[in-house]
Amino acid sequence: MRTKRTLVIACGALAREINQLKKINGWDHLDLTCIDAALHFHPEKIGAALRARIEENRAEYDDMYIAYAECGSRGEIDKIVAEEGIERLPGAHCYQFLAGQEAFLEMSDEEPGTFYLTDFLVRHFHRLVVRSLGLDRHPELRDAYFGNYKRLIYLAQTRDEKLVQGAREAAEFLGLDYCQVDTGYGELEHSLRRKFEGLRDGEEDNHILA
Q1: Which of 153, 8, 2, 152 has the alpha carbon at shortest distance from 68?
Q2: What is the spatial distance between Cα 132 and Cα 36, in angstroms, rounded to a whole number?
Q3: Domain locations along the chain
Q4: pLDDT of amino acid 200
């Protein structure tokens, strides 16, 4: 009897975390395909990319899961979810489901002028923030972009001193106060375990922070 296969179609920013959760939990029936995280600079294109991946893989898998939140797609991802009958991650963006929705709302209410980093964004800060905004060529634009921000919060999925140092350097570069919140995998883990293990709301997660 053929083992049922599930395809997770994910934002590339979540690839490392999903592969780690797959390994830890023994989800051998799960395959992962990722879409370039740089599409977050063009969220209007995410929907088309998701539709293409679904169509390309429809015949090969028994089930699919979309590892995106709403991600600025203006409802396009939710439209795909409804049309295809495929679940997606909860919330508006990765900061929310990694931190936990309630915790993220508390942080946002406490200081609306907060810039958030995840492990992925720390690793690629120069490419995705500095270079993409032209701050390497025009550092005088920093205050135009970030003048209304007050602090940077690093939402840490792992315990990695190099990433902590990178996040601190990012805060210094942007002229923002630094804060770190150790989230583990947050609701990303809970959502995947609920999907693949039948975990119910309210049951305890591991919230791994490796």
Answers
A1: 8
A2: 15
A3: 6-92+186-197, 101-182
A4: 44
